[in-house]
Specification:
This protein is mainly α and about 280 residues long. Helix content is about 70%, strand content about 0%. It has 17 helices and no strands. The radius of gyration is 20 Å and the shape is globular. The mean pLDDT is about 90.
């Protein structure tokens, strides 16, 4: 890895792979990449490709960990690029970095996607200082704003968080976006109610949430999501088949690989491409 010599695209691919592998030996060159990009940023505006590379570096540091990585992630909380800030928050949550709690609580006040990312990180860190902001967030008048704090509490082993997610799924009309997000979190927690709700959305013909529900299943990390995704392929529109292919690539396993090999013969070129890429990422190309 030498971002001064390689193209930004190749460097980004290398950084992403090293992050996924959690390669401790790569920590030093990745930190050096961050330092170099920061020095360039102070002299000129970064190109779009270098901004993507910079974001990938932050994500990789959050996967690899170590004191040097944590220090850069803490710096990233004040970055002018919101994408970098969100990845720094996620990384600090993944590393359960307690020294980041107060800064993450402050960032949660921005609302929107930032708040959701912060609540997830606070739940992952899980010390006593995280409780109050999560409990406050769950009392929001807007159901959509209650979901991520409830998940954060659930990550901390608090039953009230799981109960709130269950309530949002059970007592909301089919197609409610807060219920969809709650179901996604329940699926991540390996709760049957979440999986069932997402499957119900996929099976609802004409629903505008078929694709988001399939995407949620694919991103849930729950191996029990593989079978319903494979079953949903029958009669699915190309856009839905493409999302399912990506999801199966994330989830992996023999059943996913078998379905992806079939999708390589799909009449839609985008679906074939997504299936091929998924198999390549699974090492099954």
């Amino acid at each position: 890895l030498d971002i001064r010599k390689d193209s930004p695209r190749r460097s980004t691919a290398l950084v992403e792979a090293l992050g996924v592998l959690r390669a401790k030996k790569a920590l030093e060159p990745i930190i050096a990449s961050w330092d170099y990009l920061d020095s360039v940023r102070l002299q000129m505006d970064l190109t779009a490709q270098l901004q993507v590379l910079r974001s990938a570096v932050v994500e990789a540091l959050g996967q690899i960990g170590g004191e040097g990585a944590s220090n850069i992630l803490m710096e990233g909380l004040d970055d002018p690029d919101q994408g970098v800030v969100e990845k720094a928050v996620k990384g600090l949550g993944r590393l359960r970095e307690r020294k980041a709690v107060e800064a993450i609580i402050a960032l949660s006040a921005r609302g929107g996607n930032m708040a959701q990312t912060c609540y997830e990180a606070l739940g992952a860190i899980g010390n006593d200082r995280c409780l109050a902001p999560l409990e406050k967030g769950m009392r929001s008048e807007n159901p959509m704003d209650q979901v991520a704090p409830a998940y954060g509490l659930a990550l901390m082993g608090k039953k009230e968080g799981v109960r709130k997610l269950d309530d949002l799924v059970e007592n909301s009309p089919l197609g409610d976006k807060a219920a969809l997000l709650a179901a996604y979190y329940l699926a991540r927690l390996d709760k049957k109610a979440g999986l069932d709700h997402l499957v119900q959305l996929i099976e609802a013909e004409g629903s505008s949430l078929q694709v988001p529900a399939a995407e949620a299943l694919g991103k849930s990390g729950n191996k029990r999501a593989v079978l319903p995704l494979v079953e949903a392929l029958g009669g699915a529109e190309p856009g839905l088949r493409l999302i399912i292919a990506r999801g199966l690539g994330r989830l992996g396993g023999p059943r996913s690989v078998h379905a992806l090999r079939k999708l390589q013969e799909d009449p839609n070129p985008a679906v074939r491409g997504a299936a091929g890429m998924a198999l390549e990422e699974l090492g099954e190309d």
